[in-house]
Amino acid sequence: MSQTESTRPRPSWLFPEYTPVGTDLSSPTAVASYDRNQGTDSAADDALLNRLGVTAGTSFVDLGCGTGSLVVQAARRGAEAYGVDVSEEMLAHAQDRAQRFGVTPHWHRAGFLDYVHCAAPADVVTTKSALHQLPDFWKQQALLNAAAMLRPGGTLYVWDVMFSFDPTEAEDHLQRWIDSASRPQGEGFTRANFESHVRDEFSTYTWVLEGMIEQAGLAIVSHSFPRSTHGEFVCRKRLPTTSA
Ligand SMILES: C[S@@+](CC[C@H](N)C(=O)[O-])C[C@H]1O[C@@H](n2cnc3c(N)ncnc32)[C@H](O)[C@@H]1O
């Protein structure tokens, strides 16, 4: 199994998406402990794939796929599955997982901004806990790229750290999240990791994301913000309008 690069040219003004922001999850140590820290759970991945209607033959792309659990579970049910990530280490781990389960998804070392989907348009594109790696201007470009790889009517799913609290209460909500989620070193993501997320990464408000999703030619089918710091959007690519 190999990783391929299908990328568009990278002009020098392009955001350097291959340079980690915040906590570097791409080091060998970080990758080795990632699934434990993140709580990777193939049953939860299966539940999400069920919700999104991913079955045998579905063309499925996961952007920022990390250690590849969602992609491997999609491939195990017969989907034509693509895992895209900027991190070679993450992709190596994902390939090992695929090999263990005897499936052969397509792996691409590429980013939100430069990945080119050189295959039939996707039915479902997902991105979990990764879009916040880009500043807002670049999130918009990433959403346009995700929309471009979808067939009309296809589904985009976004889960991430995103903020639905009143901006005047930001400090309270962020501090509560950091205090409740932090674990001792060796048992999960640490206080320093969460502090770095807030300080150095680019999580944004849900209403900012809503505008970007609409601008990318997608309609929001549903959203859920189970915590004031986390949420999801399920979106559908709009059908082309026909002139009378
Ligand atoms: C927190 S992990 C999430 C991994 C996986 N989606 C999950 O839910 O466990 C973020 C992933 O996004 C990747 N990443 C960061 N910036 C990226 C970019 N611009 N394009 C694609 N992947 C990116 C990182 O290498 C990392 O694997």
Written account of the structure:
This protein has 244 residues and is α/β, with parallel strands linked by helices. The protein has one domain (17-237): Rossmann fold (3-Layer(aba) Sandwich), CATH 3.40.50. It is built from eight helices and eight strands, in the order βααβαβαββαβαααββ. It has helices at residues 28-38, 42-51, 69-76, 88-101, 136-149, 170-181, 191-200, 206-215; strands at residues 3-4, 59-63, 80-85, 106-109, 122-128, 150-161, 218-227, 230-237. Strands 1-4-3-2-5-6-8-7 form an eight-stranded mixed sheet, with helices on both faces. Helix 2 (42-51) crosses helix 3 (69-76) and helix 5 (136-149) crosses helix 8 (206-215). S-adenosylmethionine (SAM) is lined by residues 17, 25-26, 38, 40, 63-66, 84-87, 90, 111-112, 128-130, 133-134.
Topology diagram in text:
Elements (H helix, E strand, L loop, with lengths): L2 E2 L23 H11 L3 H10 L7 E5 L5 H8 L3 E6 L2 H14 L4 E4 L12 E7 L7 H14 E12 L8 H12 L9 H10 L5 H10 L2 E10 L2 E8 L7
Parallel strand pairs: 1-4, 2-3, 2-5, 3-4, 5-6
Antiparallel strand pairs: 6-8, 7-8
Helix pairs in contact: 2-3, 5-8, 6-7
Bound molecules: S-adenosylmethionine.
Q: What best-fitting shape do the alpha-carbon axes yield?
A: globular
The helical percent reads: 25-40%
Most strands sheet: 8 strands, mixed
Q: Which ligands appear in the coordinates?
A: S-adenosylmethionine
- DSSP summary: helix tally: 8
What is the CATH T-level topology?
A: Rossmann fold
The SS-based structural class is: alpha/beta
How far do the termini sit from each other? 49 Å
Our Rg estimate from Cα atoms comes to: 17 Å
So what's the CATH class? Alpha Beta
Average of pLDDT? 95
Helix-strand topology string: EHHEHEHEEHEHHHEE
What share of the residues does DSSP label as strand, in percent? 15-25%
Strand order of the largest sheet: 1-4-3-2-5-6-8-7
The H-level CATH homologous superfamily, spelled out, is: Vaccinia Virus protein VP39
